[in-house]
Amino acid sequence: MLLEAQSLVQKENYQILELKNKSASDLNNEEQDFLKVQNQTLKAEIEELKNELLIKSRDHLFFLETFHSKVAEFEGDINYYCKIIPGLENDILEKKQRIRMKQEFLEKIQKRNKELFSIDNRNTIRGRPLNFQIPFVVLFFILIVIVFTKVYMSNAEKVIK
Question: How far is it, in rounded angstroms, from Cα 90 to Cα 99?
């Protein structure tokens, strides 16, 4: 912004110098008044831009100062607590390692689960083939039939006696 304003002022000053080089008789009063007004407006714009830049630079400086002070305060707190509590840094590192190990273990489990419970083969339910489960189901039903028949027969014998 400041550079733009300075370039405008330089252009206007150059025009003013050109007009000054002309003879006084060549310039009429209207041109002189116009140049004076234009020069004053440019000076006012430059002052406005300088004030804006000054305000913005102060704001940025204040922000940077507060930011750096907060960072330094935070770092100081961390260093303070690390000195007060012995082994705090080691505890933090151990916890990070545990977390990393747990994440790796979970990734392995997820990978294994994907392999076990893949839906690629339509003859599987929950990762086991159907021909493996059918004999167990049949044996279970046979066992139930045997148990019920024995209970029924024992009740029948009691009734007969």
Answer: 14
The domain total for the chain is 1
Residue 31 lies in a domain: yes
Boundaries of domain holding 61:
1-84
Q: What is the DSSP string of 47-100?
A: HHHHHHHHHHHHHHHHHHHHHHHHHHHHHHHHHHHHHHSTTHHHHHHHHHHHHH
Tens-place pLDDT, residues 81-95: 666 666 667 777 888
Domain contains 51: yes
Question: Is 125 in a helix, a strand, or coil?
Answer: strand
Q: How many helices (H) and strands (E) does the chain have?
A: 4, 2
Give strand pairing partners of 124: 129
Do the domain assignments include residue 21? yes
Specify the pLDDT at position 112: 79
pLDDT, one tens digit per residue, over 16-40 is 777 666 655 555 677 777 878 888 8
